[in-house]
Amino acid sequence: MGRITLDKVTKSFGEVNVIPPLDLTINDGEFVVFVGPSGCGKSTLLRLIAGLEDVTSGQIRIDGKDATQQAPAQRGLAMVFQSYALYPHMSVRKNIAFPMKMAGVPEDEQKRRIDSAAAALNLTDYLDRRPGQLSGGQRQRVAIGRAIVREPSAFLFDEPLSNLDAALRVGMRLEIMELHKRLATTMIYVTHDQVEAMTMADKIVVLRAGNIEQVGSPLELYHTPRNEFVAGFIGSPKMNIFGGNPAQQHGATKIGIRPEHIAASTETGTWSGVVGVAEHLGSDTFLHVHETGLAETVTVRVDGELPVRHGDRIFLSPDESKLHRFSEQGLRA
Amino acid sequence: MATQHSRAAARLMISPAVLLLLGWMIVPLVMTLYFSFLRYNLLMPGMEEFTGWTNYRFFLTDPAFFDALGNTLLLVGGVLLITVIGGTLLALLLDQPFWGQGVVRIMVIAPFFVMPTVSALVWKNMFMNPVNGLFGHFAHFLGLEPYDFLSQAPLASIIFIVSWQWLPFATLILLTALQSLDQEQLEAAEMDGASALSRFYYIMVPHLSRAITVVILIQTIFLLSIFAEILVTTAGGPGTASTNLTYLIYVQSLLQFDVGGGSAGGVVAIILANIVAIFLMRMIGKNLDA
Ligand SMILES: Nc1ncnc2c1ncn2[C@@H]1O[C@H](COP(=O)(O)OP(=O)(O)O)[C@@H](O)[C@H]1O
Ligand SMILES: [Mg+2]
């Protein structure tokens, strides 16, 4: 079980209010991702749930029970830190065994759980090494192993992949998702990388300055962002957002259109501009189009084979049905 | 780029310094060795003659030698025990955030800057003296008989005074080590259900082991040759109750004017110090490996 409820939770460090009153429910078995720019309070929120920080006011309930005053260990949650936080003087085996040793799990049960975790995480050959003798990805796996053996009611991950190189990051991402499918345990995952959020989450919580901007499934956030911030944050490359005349024509202060919802042609279209940098990914090409009179740069996704070159004139036509309209307050209209 | 050529040049250039250091070390050592085989008494100038191992035989069969040996080990061991344990506890305390932290940290280091002679005299006259000392006054206040620390427990008193001097050193080194401990490790342990005591035992102590090794090695070097504190407080007495090897050699060569015997004692002390060093490196030296 792992249903976590935050009820009007706030957190201040001295005078600085980092988390304004915040309500959130995380259902049992869900994979929830907290995403937002650096410094928006994601780690703080996670640490409040873990019990590593005390809430200033409000209540945290785990499976319906008030856990606000409980010590971290009593909450039955396991955390994987960004720095891995392995114990450097202990072997991998001892690292993984540590939480069980503290909980007084019998030796043979400890051994059974270590062996099954090591097998699941490809660590069997490394059990007698020290963390210092492992690669970044292996250390990350040890940290996850240490969390698994506790059989927690929820896992908390704080940017666990940000110290890995790009290729490894994709691999570990899949492994964590696989783990979630297999264990079906609640997982809360913090990241500033919207690609990680989109690919992994059942439910994304977008944060800005401690405020929840929107909660929803990846596709909900993609299709119906509640405001300009979410619209700009979710999706890669970023949504094109501009105001002025074109926006007024659609009866809004600002309008947004994703690069993939703009058709490009060399002959005719609604808007025209000059091709700047082209980013070729093979399957697609992202064109940065200037001098459109809309915004400094408009990003467009085109077919990888479209024959355009730097400095060519190009015509753009937005897919009107995929247009996002925003009011003066930045809210979805 | 260390080519063959540049390495040879480098050796050539540092050789004067190395030779100077070597000479600096070798000359007194050889002279001590030489004196230790002479019958050389300052009361009988001009009568020096070679006596073979006699000086050593006398020194090693002197009952005072065994007392001094025991006292030296007790003094070193006692001070190490007190400073390492006390230093760890103080470091833990100073690592906590509290008001006036900066000032308190500087105050803690203060005893280290007091000269050994001065601090020993202060302790002797202002605290431990049964008539004028604060402890004596305190005993009076409680209606107890004042305790004459330096004559009734001379070695323990000296151990206490020396510990007071070295506690700041241990505290400082252990505090810096403690501050370099990754906070996330402690938090991870907390999440893993480790109590404060378990966190100390399983996370902090292993992290501190290298710093503790450094403290032990450095202090041992200095503690083996404690002298001033003994000279100004008990003068090695009563009897030989607070005489260590250094002090015994001083007594031999300067109070009994027996330079030959003193030198033999010096050589014995060097050998013993090396035995202690080898022993220590065997026991705790592996902590220094990265
Ligand atoms: N212990 C602390 N004391 C004071 N301010 C803090 C502390 N921890 C975090 N903050 C502040 O809280 C804000 C959110 O921090 P954090 O939760 O680490 O952000 P994120 O993980 O989203 O990058 C930051 O502005 C940071 O400066
Ligand atoms: Mg963070």
From TrEMBL, chain A:
The family database entries (CDD domains) matched by this protein are listed as:
ABC_MalK_N
The UniProt entry, under InterPro entries, shows:
AAA+_ATPase (IPR003593), ABC_transporter-like_ATP-bd (IPR003439), ABC_transporter-like_CS (IPR017871), ABC_transpr_MalK-like (IPR015855), ABC_transpr_MalK/UgpC-like (IPR047641), Mo/tungstate-bd_C_term_dom (IPR008995), NA-bd_OB-fold (IPR012340), P-loop_NTPase (IPR027417)
Kindly give the SUPFAM superfamilies that the UniProt entry links to this protein. MOP-like, P-loop containing nucleoside triphosphate hydrolases
A family per Pfam: TOBE_2
Q: Which PROSITE patterns match?
A: ABC_TRANSPORTER_1, ABC_TRANSPORTER_2
Residues in domain ABC transporter? 4-234
**Gene Ontology molecular-function annotations:** ABC-type maltose transporter activity; ATP binding; ATP hydrolysis activity
Recorded hits in Gene3D superfamilies, A to Z, give: 2.40.50.100, Nucleic acid-binding proteins, P-loop containing nucleotide triphosphate hydrolases
- Report which superkingdom the organism of origin falls in: Bacteria
Family note: Belongs to the ABC transporter superfamily.
What is the recorded name of this protein?
Sorbitol ABC transporter ATP-binding protein/mannitol ABC transporter ATP-binding protein
Organism of provenance: Salipiger thiooxidans
TrEMBL record, chain B:
Q: How does it sit in the membrane?
A: Multi-pass membrane protein
What CDD domains would the database entry show? TM_PBP2 (cd06261)
Q: Where are the transmembrane segments?
A: 12-37, 73-94, 106-123, 155-178, 208-228, 264-284
Work out whether the entry's keyword set contains Transport. yes
Q: Which SUPFAM superfamilies match?
A: MetI-like (SSF161098)
Quote the subcellular location field of this record: Cell membrane
Q: Provide this UniProt record's keywords sorted from A to Z.
A: Cell membrane, Membrane, Transmembrane, Transmembrane helix, Transport
Q: Which GO terms describe its cellular component?
A: plasma membrane
Record's PROSITE patterns?
A: ABC_TM1
* ABC transmembrane type-1 domain segment(s): 69-280
**Primary localisation category:** membrane
GO annotation terms (biological process):
transmembrane transport
Is Cell membrane one of the keywords?
yes
**What is the similarity comment for this entry?**
Belongs to the binding-protein-dependent transport system permease family.
Its name, as the record gives it, is Sorbitol ABC transporter membrane protein/mannitol ABC transporter membrane protein
